[in-house]
Design goal:
Layout (H helix, E strand, L loop, with lengths): L10 E5 L4 H15 L4 E7 L9 H15 L3 E7 L8 H14 L3 E5 L6 H17 L19 E5 L9 E4 L4 H9 L2 H4 L14 H16 L4 E6 L10
Parallel strand pairs: 1-2, 1-4, 2-3, 4-5
Antiparallel strand pairs: 5-7, 6-7
């Protein structure tokens, strides 16, 4: 996996499992990367309970997807799959990560989703973003990084969705987004020995259709939809 000494990131996207962020925000991350911005993904778990594939293979697939999207950083916090909880130790670990990488924008799953881990990831990240800005809040015993305020906290869609507050044109990034998703062959392809899951039954086609639908609403070929946890200030319009 991509490893580095912590540096300030422009965007840090959190997901419960490797492939979550790619599903909802792969196009946006690639667009930012092409603009020279430093982007990162932080997976909370190794998805060790996934019906198909292995932890080792999933990490290899995540590495391939990361390279395609031009990520600067990819992290995994090794929290338990199906064991995500809004408890102090998990919130503290995510807040510590935010303080280390000091992102301007944090992405997280939309807070209503059929998968409980996606919803819990959103709750944990929201709590961590708030705590990371509190000067007296300690994220590590005796060595807490300085407090950090995130400017924007955005939700991306995985399975469920609502009407987006705004959309981002990813027409030029769509091919790479789909290539990054296709890197997770153990999850999206039916292979010898694998079992049928919602992911193996046309899931990538549905994601492409969703982004096409968002694009049609905004007059572009493909778009990703987002919701914001904080008010968005437009300095120029349109």
């Amino acid at each position: 996996m991509i490893k580095d000494e912590p540096v300030k990131l422009d965007v840090l996207a959190f997901g419960a499992h490797p492939d979550d962020v790619e599903i909802g925000a792969g196009g946006l991350l690639y667009k930012f990367s092409k603009q020279g911005k430093k982007t990162g993904i932080c997976d909370l778990t190794l998805a060790e309970l996934s019906s198909n594939g292995t932890v080792e293979r999933r990490q290899q697939e995540a590495e391939e997807a990361s390279q395609l999207l031009g990520l600067h950083t990819r992290l995994n916090l090794h929290l338990p799959d199906r064991g995500l909880r809004a408890v102090p130790e998990q919130i503290r670990l995510v807040a510590h990560t935010i303080r280390l990488y000091r992102p301007d924008i944090v992405l997280m799953p939309y807070w209503e989703d059929r998968h409980p881990d996606h919803e819990m990831c959103s709750i944990i990240v929201r709590e961590a973003v708030f705590n990371a800005r509190i000067r007296k809040y300690e994220t590590a015993d005796g060595a807490s990084p300085a407090a950090h305020k995130v400017n924007h906290m955005l939700g991306y869609f995985i399975n469920s969705q609502t009407t987006p507050q705004f959309m981002v044109d990813i027409s030029e990034e769509m091919e790479t987004k789909m290539a990054a998703l296709a890197a997770y062959r153990s999850q999206f392809e039916k292979e010898s020995g694998s079992v049928s899951t919602p992911l193996t039954e046309g899931y990538l086609e549905r994601i492409k259709a969703r982004e096409y639908g968002f694009g049609q609403e905004t007059g572009v070929a493909y778009a990703e939809g987002f919701v914001s946890r904080t008010p968005l200030l437009l300095r120029t319009f349109p």
